Amino acid sequence: MNALVPLADVVYVEPWWMQVLKSIVIFLVGLQILPVMIVAERKILGRFQNRYGPNRVGPFGILQPLAEIVKFATKEQFRPRTAIAWLFALAPVISILTAVASLAIVPFSNTVDIFGTKTGLYGLDVSIGPLYLFAFSAVAFYGIMLGGWASGSKYSFLGAMRAAAQLISYEVAQGLALVGVIMTAQTLSLVGIVEAQQGMWYIVPQVVGFIIFLVAGFAETNRPPFDLVEADAELVQGYMTEYGGTRMVAYLFAEYLNLLIISLVVTTVYLGGWLLPFGIDPPTWVDPFVVFAKAFLFIFFFFWIRATLPRLRYDQLMSLGWKILLPLATINTLVTAIILVATD
Amino acid sequence: MPWNPGDDVIAVQRAPQPGGVGGVYRAFGETLRGLKTTFARIPEGTVTLQYPEEKTPVYPRFRGRHRLHRFADTGLEKCVGCSLCAAACPADCIRVVAAENTPEHRVSAGERYAAVYEINLSRCIFCGYCEVACPFDAITMGPDYEMSDYHRPDLIFTKEMLLVEPFERTPLRGEGE
């Protein structure tokens, strides 16, 4: 086989300086949204429970994440004597690295002219879009598994095993739910998927896939009601038990970054990305704001669900994943395929 | 022969069994109902009291920090140093040392007065027995509940501290509030 065959065709390539610039901007924007999300979650959860949430640090408590990061950063770094030092340090890095890498393929708009250069408003438009995403979320297991195992603590290890089982089960359903969209759009490029939604967003024809993808997304990001991994009430903190200080912050950031990414991906794949309904066609600079506005709807929905649903039992989690979501996703794929062939 | 309950039979309506297609449908519907319930909390607003700025008003019979009293007309202390409060105290946190009143140095209305009156508030259990034991209503439990401090010696309240009005007044609950 020819060794030069690339694993993934990159649909559009800019000059190197533009790629560097783009990466920095996307990274900074993504990382600046996280503290906003954290404080928004706590304030919104508070409102759901007839209370204020954080309102002491800064105006309306918006500096709360800053105060907390200072607290975490000034803490002592420690690890159990049984821990494997280099893996223990490496695991959070893997987690946050894969999360940041997944952010690269989320498209915020099509190509625009910046400084006379045609630039795509996305990190990278690879021809294997969703596969790239799943590949990185598969690598993210290692962050969790290694973290739990290298801690050398039984609680961490149990938490990591639960996490791995949960993530693997739901990734299957999540992947199958996307197949319907990919078949309809006839492309794996996320920009291509958005452009294929010109007439109708995929949330309408693929509503079953959308619900499956969203439910599996809750499980993939370890959000309530699927937060069995952490289960703050029964397990100590799952795989994070032995972590403290900035290493735990890395895990938390990865978790919230995954939440942001899953919202952005749902927006891209099912809600038409930067497209607006009723033929409204704003100038291109509005597009990223449209994407973020739609993503924030989903983020709010994640918070809303957290305020509403109690945590699932472990057997309920497994039976929901394997007995309901997976068959539903398979049927959804088959029906989509049959309709596509019949109407072709 | 099987027992025939006759007319006493009560038909119990059972909840639908979980699982199956119907179970999924019901779970979905119940989830939506739950979402509606939680969202309805947002327009209700908050019930939080912003504590250091807003304080919970206390009831008139609230047993907070002790106060010693003077007669309003003569300004003499009501306490005569009888030590009944110290005897009644189950936590043994009151210390009274009595001294004789003299015509030149008259502190209380009775024969004797409390030269030393100390309450160790870190031991006090706020049972109110001292108030009940006092024959002259000299000691009562006030409405103040903010007594935390950094050092234990600071929690031993002397007679002078118990006699003065507190700088910040604890809000009292109004009639029917």
Short key terms for the protein model shown above:
heterodimer; A: 344 residues; mainly alpha; two-stranded antiparallel sheet; 2 strands; B: 177 residues; alpha+beta; Alpha-Beta Plaits; 22% helix
Query: Can you write the helix and strand succession of chain B as a string?
Result: HHEHEEHEEH
How much of the sequence of chain B is in beta strands?
A: 5-15%
Q: Strand order, biggest sheet of chain A?
A: 1-2
- Using only C-alpha atoms, the radius of gyration of chain B works out to 30 Å
Q: In this structure, how is the largest beta sheet of chain B organized?
A: 3 strands, antiparallel
Number of domain modules of chain A:
1
Number of strands of chain A: 2
* Class per helix and strand makeup of chain B: alpha+beta
Helix content of chain A: 55-70%
Number of helices of chain B: 5
Biggest interface and residues each: A-B, 13 and 15 residues
CATH topology of the domain at 66-163 in chain B: Alpha-Beta Plaits
Major sheet: arrangement of strands of chain B: 2-3-5
Reading the helices and strands of chain A in chain order gives HHHEEHHHHHHH
Multimerization status: heterodimer
Taken as a percent bin, the fraction of beta residues of chain A is under 5%
Structural class of chain A: mainly alpha
Q: What is the topological layout?
A:
The complex is a heterodimer of chains A (344) and B (177).
Chain A lengths: L15 H33 L15 H10 L11 H19 L7 E4 L2 E4 L8 H22 L3 H32 L4 H7 L10 H14 L24 H26 L16 H22 L5 H30 L1
Antiparallel strand pairs in A: 1-2
Helix pairs in contact in A: 1-8, 1-9, 2-8, 3-4, 3-8, 4-5, 5-7, 5-10, 7-8, 7-10, 8-9
Chain B lengths: L19 H20 L1 H4 L21 E3 L15 H5 L5 E7 L11 E9 L8 H5 L5 E3 L14 E2 L1 H5 L14
